[in-house]
Amino acid sequence: MNTRSNRRRIAVLGIALAAVLPLAACAGGGAEPDTGSSEGGAGAGGTDPDTFTVMTANENPVLEEQLTALSEGACKAENEALPLEHQKVAQADTVQKVTLLASQGALPTHTIAGTALIRPDGDLNAAGLVGDLKAALEGAGTWGNVLPAAASTVEQVYGGMFSMPYQYNIEGIFYNKEILADNGIEEPQTWDDLVDAADTLADAGVVPMTEAGANGWPLTRIMGMYIFRNVGPDAMAAVRDGDAKLTDPEYVAGAQALADFADAGYFGEGFSTRDGDTSSNMFLTGQAAMTYDGSWLLSAINDPERNEIGGENVGFMPFPEVDGGKGSIDQYAANAGAPMIINAEQFGPKVVDWVSCIAENYGQQALQDAGVISGFKVNGDVTDISENTAEIQERIAGIDETVLWFEALMDSKSNSLASTNVTLLTTGQMSAEDYMAQLQASIDANG
Amino acid sequence: MNSIFGDRKTIFILLAPALVLYTLLKVVPVGWSLGLSFFEGNSLRGFEWVGLQNFTTFFTDPAALQSMWVSVFFAIVATICQVALGYGLALLYVFVLRKGSTLVRTFVFFPTVLPTVAVALLFRSFVAVGENQGPVNDIINFFGGESVEVLASTVGTMTTAIAMTLWSSMGFYAVLLYAGLLDIPEEIIESARLDGANGFKLVRHIVVPLSLPILLSSIIFSLNATLKVFDSLLALNGGGPGTSTAPMTLYMYRTAFEYAEYGYGSTIAVILTALCLVFTLAIFRSSRRKAEV
Q: Among A56, A222, B177, B179, which is least packed, fewest CB within 10 Å?
């Protein structure tokens, strides 16, 4: 009897102790910054690390290859002063890994991060770990290498120049010139023209527009672009600031337009479970006439093994206007790739040199080697650009004003909800009003 | 022998390594998680005491309640079907196939060793539409029907998930219950047969009561395993369409690791554990009542 109650007492004590442990963690929790300001606006004010550790996503091998190429070529001197070292992370695990590393004080020098984390009110920035690239590059005199359009997009999305624009993508509708010509369709200038064109194409037995519904965001892009064309380029900023609500009629019209488009079957059969590669292939093998996608598709378009319809047959047009809307057709949707930040605590002079060297040379390196359009100036000659790439580059050079994407300014929970619920919206299981109401409720609760 | 097991110090020294490892890896994290459920935040932002607020949030959070419903529904339906099917197969092995059951047993058991993610992807392509249409829709088309986009509806996804779980685990329960059925003495079956009990009557009045202990263990085991389902539903359709097939485990994972809210994630874990306990105790209680009667 005695031993049993003793044992029970020990067990209870053990569990109570374990339950109290988090209090100790709480006391020491939160990275206290001792260098750099808490807004990340101190720019280069950190101490150099021993190696230039770079963490990139598994899904993006190009960035790793190009940085390695730079370290052996144009940036050899900087590499000798501070050697490059690569780390990888699966893109879906980014938030988890970065939060963990940051809380242990082991955040790499240059790393991919989550959008919400690096904003001024995000966990990383509030802990003083996000370096200000504009201040650092201006200080080194190399700020001119960042394209103004890219800088503007990065500042719009992240609330400051916190990310290196290794990619600069514009979005629009890629179309099969031959199929459209065969059906007597010209580039649609308005949404109604687009719907009519889709109708004609559907009758001709071709999938009018293919989208990867399994990922969610390709569908919300279309809804978002409708809203930007209908309400104007500040549509989503107004929602973030509370000046407008997603349940306002002009916004619901976007959800309704998407639902109607899907309901008419213009995305093809089984679109809600279609993955990205399948969708791109449907376009590149001529089964679909159009696809709304971004200029990252160029790598597939320029690949003769994947592109069966031929590069000269691929046209690009901006998302059409909406009748009576305040947006205009030349406001392209642009994004600057996944956020790649510099750890403010390690932003010493050697790191600034490395970053400056990247800013000077990455534009030309990536375009020449991998056909990737970045947000950096191309300083030098590039040979053998495909016509499609050249066309996109020309459009980017002529851009005045860009818009972001639908979820760009949302918190991570609402971002997730927008993608998961769009399947229900486009398969008729949720009405446009309900979709917007739920999303607005989430933004109000979490934003 | 007795002098070794009689000496408490020796017992402690022999047990200590495994016990320490077990405590550190299992008991401490469970206690830590229980403690975390009264806080809010993550390791980077720091933790803030919120008391029982996480628990009250859980019961007013529609996403959390939906995930709880998905977990419970999946657990109950999958358990009933799995154990019933497994029991039917076990009866088949014992009474119909007898000696020749080894080959059938092996084949039916085989899917159990396959990784659950692989099985989920397999079933996903079974019900696919469009480009690479799967056999299910091919059969429907053959009989003149139109292709059904199974994974675009909650009912379709849930049905596929349950079919998938049954296919991969009925062999396991069949073997488990088969072992239990073998324990029933031949003489009892013989004498029952002599008394005129045959087929269904034999099963209902003799076999089931005698195999009740193993049946109840299987049900408890199955409930606990299916309440914690994660990879099958995630790999099949990402918890979709929307979040209508996202169980509590998936919601907990997303909360803790995608939204970086460790406190609320721990709360969900605690509630899931409590749910498993409730189900287990309920089965125990009902079995004890049966034995007393």
A: B179
